[in-house]
Amino acid sequence: MNLIEVDHALRKLRLSGMADVLEARLRHAQTEKFAPLDLIATLVSDELQRRQDRLFTRRHQQARFRDADRSLDRFDFDFNKKMNRALIHELATARFVQQREDALLLGPPGTGKSHLAQAIGRAAIQQGHRVVYLDAPHRDALERFPVVPSTRPYATLAELREALATSAGLTTVWRAIGRLGFTVKKTVYADEQRRPDVVAARRQWRDWQPLRDMRQYVFLDECGVSTDLLRRYGRSPRGTRLHDHAPFGHWETHTVVAALRFDGLGAPAVFDGPIDNPSFLAYVEQILVPSLRLGDIVVLDNLAVHKQPDVRLAIERAGATIRFLPPYSPDFNPIEQAFAKLKAFLRTARPRTFDHVAALVAAALELFTPAECRNYLQHCGYRAAVQL
Description:
By secondary structure, the chain is of the alpha/beta class. Helices cover 47% and strands 9% of the residues. The mean pLDDT is 86.
């Protein structure tokens, strides 16, 4: 490789610190008759210094210091002879940050508090810490900050910053929210759950739950699986986007039916396309019923295919009973959590044919351990009876 090719390779490896000084360092090495290892060490040192300089520059920008030239070297300690110089230099070591202690500078206006605060902040950056400088308007916003996310949980970072009337960066607002214990999460429930009839039905279900042992429950449901599944997110270097491919117009939808017990996921079936009355009845008679035990309680949602008289008759002939969940209440059905895990497994495997989907569903049954299935049920409020 010639010098130009080496320069290009270094920049491609994001080693521009080496590339910028490569020619000069080679001439110097020839003049001083450096050993190859000494030349490499010098180039590595140049790269490390460049990265450190860029890091310090970026952190100074993020700190948003009000004045650009405030440092301890420029502070006139003779102006305020009461200032404890040794203590200020101790603060500049940032040991109080490592020890998770607070430092408070008190005094009347014009005594150099802002200068010292910025100087100590710059020294802390040199020690590898992140710093944010807040002037008086920012401090007023900080006092109001704990209340704002609670009263406006749906606000974006920009909207929160506007509500606080602060010019702090969005990254600063994000970190402050994290320190207060707020995280980004939201569960959406059906608006129909607030209807009086649905409220009464859900309350009745909750009252009925403790009267049954969760080892009797068999939660039955369906989920759709398409042949264009893939993981929705992936990692890529900053400034680039990860690309992937999936069928756009020629994909199929299949239906997976399964039953969740406290000790595992079973009675699986995969149907080509959506399920209908004959398909579901055949599933119940040929797959579900042979797996039922005397005293089981089969729990279903209110899908029309579930309410066929022949379905109830087949289940009751096996010595089990059937119960329907309250309307708009998937949160009472723990198999929804199991299906979420199944979908994640299928996204990883990326099935593209019906046979592949069926094979993956069969293989996925071993992923659902008894302890995990028991936790699914307990999460939805179901409990095991304890014999005294």
